[in-house]
Amino acid sequence: MEKFSHLDENGNARMVDVSDKKATDRRAVAKACVHLNEKCYKMVKNQEIKKGDVLTVAKVAGIMAAKNTSNLIPMCHPINLTSIEIDFKMDDNEHRIDIFVEAKLNAKTGVEMEALTGASLAALTIYDMCKAVQKDIEISGVKLLRKEGGKSGDYVNESSIG
């Protein structure tokens, strides 16, 4: 059985020591989906939500979340992100907002958690800004779509290819 790296020899939780790892370019892309009813979706699209421009606020929240991931996830290394890009795809038929977050850096550790945290918080921000209009908003599909770089190499989530 492979040793779990977040546990020391006594089974105590620890932050993994990455001192001996080589810094490499790394990139991760994550996704989250927010499902709205038709009325709320149209209000977001037409910027009619009373709290403001939902997608702009969600983008800023996602960026802030990605930058603060190590403050939220206990064993996550603080890192110097070089880029965070957040894009939204509006699905008019399904009344769904797909959130895509791309995080980049050159470091000794990966950037997957930052991309996932950014996508999650952008989705939660949309929820928060729309909850006065719709109570049954659903967030789903939070997942890593791809990662590049590092010792373990590249990864593509096969379920995201289509």
From TrEMBL:
SUPFAM superfamilies the record matches: Molybdenum cofactor biosynthesis protein C, MoaC
GO MF entry, a single one: cyclic pyranopterin monophosphate synthase activity
InterPro entries assigned: MoaC, MoaC_bact/euk, MoaC_sf, MoCo_biosynth_MoaA/MoaC, Mopterin_CF_biosynth-C_dom
Catalytic residues as annotated in Swiss-Prot or TrEMBL: 128
Catalysis performed (reactions): (8S)-3',8-cyclo-7,8-dihydroguanosine 5'-triphosphate = cyclic pyranopterin phosphate + diphosphate
Pfam families (alphabetical): MoaC (PF01967)
Coiled coil: none
Domain Molybdopterin cofactor biosynthesis C (MoaC): 15-150
UniProt keyword terms in alphabetical order: Lyase, Molybdenum cofactor biosynthesis
GO biological process, one term: Mo-molybdopterin cofactor biosynthetic process
Source superkingdom: Bacteria
Record: residues binding substrate: 75-77, 113-114
CDD domains hit by this protein: MoaC_PE
EC number of the protein: 4.6.1.17
Pathway annotation: Cofactor biosynthesis; molybdopterin biosynthesis
Gene3D superfamilies, per the entry: Molybdopterin cofactor biosynthesis C (MoaC) domain
Subunit structure and binding partners: Homohexamer; trimer of dimers.
Biological role: Catalyzes the conversion of (8S)-3',8-cyclo-7,8-dihydroguanosine 5'-triphosphate to cyclic pyranopterin monophosphate (cPMP).
HAMAP family xref list: MoaC_B
Family membership noted in the UniProt record: Belongs to the MoaC family.
UniProt-recorded name of the protein: Cyclic pyranopterin monophosphate synthase
Gene, per the UniProt record: moaC
